[in-house]
Each structure stands twice: as structure tokens, then as C-alpha cells.
Amino acid sequence: MIVRNSQAWWLRDTKYGSPTSNYDANCYMTILSAPNENSVTFGNDACKFHSRSYYCQSLHTTTTTTLAAVDAPAPAADSPSTEWESEGRKVFLYKTAAHVDLRTQTTFCTDKSLHWFSPKSQADAQALITNAHNADNHHTWIQLHGVQMEAGGIIGGHQVTVDDGSCTSVSAKEPQEWNGIRKTGCSLCDPELYDYKSSCWDVHEYDWFACEEIATTIATTTTTAAEAPVYTVLHENKYCDNILTVDGVTDECYGDAECTYDKCAELCNAAEGCTIFSYQEADSACRLCQADTTYGADSRWKIYEK
Fold first, then answer.
1. What share of the chain is helix, strand, coil (3-state, %, to 5)?
2. DSSP state of 208
3. What is the CATH number of the domain that holds 284?
4. Using only C-alpha atoms, what is the Rg of the chain?
């Protein structure tokens, strides 16, 4: 049965004799009996019935449960949030994933071809604390891997200034695998006590991993110049008659300010087969001698050999 508002009216789910042919659309019928909702009987009489009441039923509804999507925690950052130069290498600060299990992160830095941060000096250690705090001005943890920490705020053997370095204990393990530190108090954390969560006892969207650049070693090769041969005086007051010729050129110098004993020795060193030279200082004269030379007499000259 359909009425003017196009909504269905349910009367019964088995065939019944009413309404008969004298029923007009949108007219009332009378309820003859209604012992329960499955046994309603009714009659019509050409729109002679009137009423101020209605029989109603609840709508058949379907309940659909929609689960709100839970955002997955943001992954650890691939790019550093900040970096700085210290002790001859770069230090990088990366955001961790939220509450990440540190035991799954031991290769975080090495996967990026970096080392885990290890302080080289007190100033180096303090720069980490200061720069990490300045990066977000929050109580974010810096999680250090493989760096020993002592009560009072000592990391890697270097004392740093933090707000409260005595509020909690540090790991008694040797060596310590993970340690958390930050500027704000309480400033120290042993992550093992908090199921190795990067956020320790806090609820953070991220915390910090500190990595450092791998130092590049540049190999240098030192070439030691061959020592010049030592010449000794072979003859006093003599010079060589047979001058050494190299590539058709007589190898000697004369009257030149640069024609010194050292220059003469240098020429002999460079000339193939030269083992003897004669030199006289008065006229700045040099002669490279053949091995089978004969000698001439002159008090100004000396002959030298290797």
C-alpha cells in the first residue's frame, strides 16, 4: 500500500480479504482485531471511517560502523633537520619516528654512510646539546648510540651543561648501547627502562638521532730528492784537456756569475757518463771531463771526482 508521501505502510505479510473493491485510495480503514503485529485484521467501507490516531512501526535500519583511520607515525627523516661543523667534521641531527624502538635503529647512521656521533671534546659535546635544543626549543631527546654516559651529564667523558643531570640513573651496562640526553630537565634517560622507546617516558612526535661525517683521509706521498753525489778533489792545480761532449755540445761554462762550483757539480750530475769535472773560481770556469781525459797544469784549477 502506497500513500501520498510515497512511503510504504505495512499491514500484514499474508494475504487478506480487505480492502475490497469499494475502497478508495487514501481513505481510512478500521482495525477489526490486532492480537499481535502478525495478525492484524481490518476492513473498509467506502471511506466511512475516521481517526485521530495512527498505527506506526519503527524504520528498519542498518547500522554501519566506520572505524576512524589511525594515522601511521611519521617515518624517520631522510634529511637532517640541522647540521654544523665541529672538530673538523660535520654533525647532522635527524628526526626519529615517533616512539621508535631503538633496538631496530642501530644502523640508522651507517645506512646513510655516516658514523654515530661521538664527542671529540667538551666543546663538541656541548655543541650537540645546544644545537639540538635550539632546533625546536622543546624537551626532545637526543638518542646516542655507543656513547658512554655518566650521572651528572657526562657523555663520552666530557661534562656538558644541562638543566638537571641528577634526576635519574644511567645504565650500569658496559658498554652502554643507548643513552638519552637533552638540555631540559629531567635531562638523562636510560631507554632500556622504557622498552627502548626513543621518547623515553614522554610522548613526542619525534626525537633526535645524531650522526657525524666520516673523516676523509687523504694519502700524501712525500718524494725525497736523491742526495747529490759528493765530489772530492782528485788533482790540485790541474784541469782536464778532454771536455765531455753531450749531444754534440761541449758541456762547460765560463765567466758566468751563475757558473759556481755547485752549478758545475749539478751539470756533472745531469750529464750521462760524467764522473769528473774541473773548476776554477777566479774566472768562474767549469769543464766536464771525459773519463779518459789528460790533464793540463794551471794553479787556478782543481779537478773533482765522485
1. 10, 25, 60
2. E
3. 3.50.4.10
4. 52
Same domain, yes or no: 280 and 243: yes
The listed range with the strongest mean pLDDT (19-28, 63-72, 178-187) is 178-187
Same domain (yes/no): 204, 114:
yes
Reported confidence tier of residue 129, pLDDT bands at 50, 70, 90: very high
Going by C-alpha positions, the residue among 158, 162, 102, 151 that lies closest to residue 129 is: 162
Q: Confirm if 166 and 146 have CB atoms less than 8 A apart.
A: no
278 contacts: CB under 8 Å, gap ≥ 6? 238, 239, 240, 286, 287, 289, 301, 302, 303, 304
d(CA 92, CA 135): 12
Q: What's residue 124's pLDDT? A: 97
Stretch (H or E) spanning 143: strand 142-145
Its domain, for residue 198, covers: 82-212
Alpha-carbon span 88 to 90, nearest angstrom: 7
Alpha helices of 70-172 — where are they, by DSSP H? Answer: 122-136
**What single-letter amino acid sits at 90?**
K
Distance, in Å, from the CA atom of 266 to the CA atom of 16, rounded to the nearest integer, reads 135
pLDDT tens readout for residues 4-57: 555 556 667 677 777 776 777 777 777 777 777 777 777 777 776 766 666 566
Helix (H, G, I), strand (E, B), or coil: what is residue 269? helix
